[in-house]
Specification:
The complex is a heterodimer of chains A (257) and B (324).
Chain A lengths: L1 E6 L1 E3 L21 E3 L1 H17 L2 E7 L4 H11 L3 E6 L7 H11 L11 E5 L10 H9 L3 E11 L2 E7 L5 E7 L2 E5 L11 H10 L3 E4 L9 E7 L8 E2 L4 H14 L4
Helix pairs in contact in A: 2-5, 3-4
Chain B lengths: L4 E4 L2 E2 L2 E2 L1 H17 L3 E7 L14 E6 L9 H14 L3 E5 L5 H11 L3 E11 L2 E8 L4 E7 L4 E5 L16 E4 L10 E7 L13 E5 L9 H10 L3 E4 L1 H5 L20 E5 L5 H4 L7 E6 L12 E4 L2 H16 L1
Parallel strand pairs in B: 1-4, 1-6, 4-5, 5-11, 6-10, 7-10, 13-14, 13-15, 15-16, 16-17
Antiparallel strand pairs in B: 2-3, 7-8, 8-9
The chains are: A alpha/beta (257), B alpha/beta (324).
Amino acid sequence: MNILAVLKMVPDVVEELEVGDDGKSLDLDFLRLIVNERDEHALEQALLLKDKHGGSVTAVAIDAPEIDDVLFTALAKGADRAVKITDVEEGLSTRAAASLLAQVLPKVPNLLPADLVLAGCQATDDLDGQTAAVLAHGLELPYLGIVSQVDADGSTACVLSEFPGGVRGEFEVDMPAVLGIQASEKPPRYVPVAKVRAAMKSQTIEEVSAGTEPEASLAAVTGMTKPEAGGKAEMLDGSPEELAAKVGEILSERGLL
Amino acid sequence: MPGNVWVMAEQWRGELSEITYELLALGRELADGLGVQLEAVLLGHDARGLAATLGAADGILYADDPAFTEPTAAARSQTLASLAEERRPHCLLLGLTNLTADLAGILPAQLGAPFVNYCRDVRVADGKLEARCILYGGKMDAAVEAAAEPVLLGVLPGVRPADQGLKSGAPQVEDVTASVPDAPRVRFTKYLEPEAGDVDITQQEVLVAVGRGIANEDNVELAEEIATALGGAVCGSRPVIDQGWLPLSRQVGKSGATVKPKFYLAAGISGAPEHTEGMKGSDVIIAINTDPDAPIFGVAHYGMVADCLEILPALVETVAAKKG
């Protein structure tokens, strides 16, 4: 089985984020990019399927800062191939990037059709679309999202998707298909830095020029602000013991302790 | 004259889900602000009776097809796309739930229409829609305008109180044509119910919730100790479930439970909208996070900028001492 895992970089929201001078985008000086967490799960699910059924996994990403590290990490984890789409303007919206991939991927030698294309079902910067769903539409493939389990045999995948309240639905999906991954069946595997370094020495990232212009986004940010810190919360200060005592008081006041 | 405001009437196992009424309340404001009609789009099979509580709308567009009993997006997307092409609504409100997420992904692409995701509010200003969106896990708030119509708006749960949009008295129901794929490529097989036997976190008065800040599985025991002493239970946000440190039955938020305990302690949880939608109705929320900008402080009643791994051991002592 041949699987494509699509990865993209997003701002690390654990870091401090600031609004840029234009008042409507992030200040790039403050920005640290990491791979979208759901995409890491998509890659893991692809590797799990390969572990089980054999075949190949290709990691694909649009060029971005730190993307080489991410792609070499994918290779070190067990991906067979890494493809980087270059000559793409920075900061494309989710939808523009996914539409572009849908145009470019079919032109990459020996890439499509793959049996499955896996990508995260969401990202924190998905302002104007979802990568996996837009990609499915562009590639004219069936789509199912919020996926947390996949098995595949022959021409059909058996897929579990999450509903509210812990209920899951089981689906049969004709392959090839695009799946939006919520969570892989096991947590994404850890790979030691030494192994990533080894991959950097022994393997290569294939670079493919996009050769096409992205679509204009149909949704424009006109202003961006940081939500008021704290909002309505009463902020408490003190040593850990003092803070714990305050929590104890709040519990006592409510008859819970 | 702009087109009408449409609301997708979301269903879950044959019933209208709560977000439908929240969207109707919002849609009513938008329709009145634009001077147009509010229409609910109801897609079902033998489901005309569901229109009875959609009285907040001026009219219902109802399409009937057995395909709509399956929780799959393709039939809904195709029907909505052809309806929207024919009738050109100004906007369509879609709930950002696990039931509508796939539709919100596919429909904009199919229709070639703008999509605005993560809307926490939408207002009419100068005859135009302006969406306020939560980006970067709640760390930024963006004002967003769409460049074309119809605009598809993905609206977060809790945008308005559901009771504001719940009105009996069915408005006029207009039958419209269902447009469904002949041979669906995604086929629903069955529901898998959550495993029974675990505690029901929706029934607890006290919940101690842990997130990424709990750092490792062993530390979950600290939270467990406090919860047990208080007669409550431990629950968690998505990263903790993904790591396998707590089962899916303990997840709060999207895919998990919506809880309203008397006391909710959020330890090391950043407060992304996917989590807060499931707990913001709690009586008292105390949040512990090392990041002063963590959006959890926007929904908490009390907050402390601290490492939960320092506070939880101290709290174990405090609780033990108070209980004597």
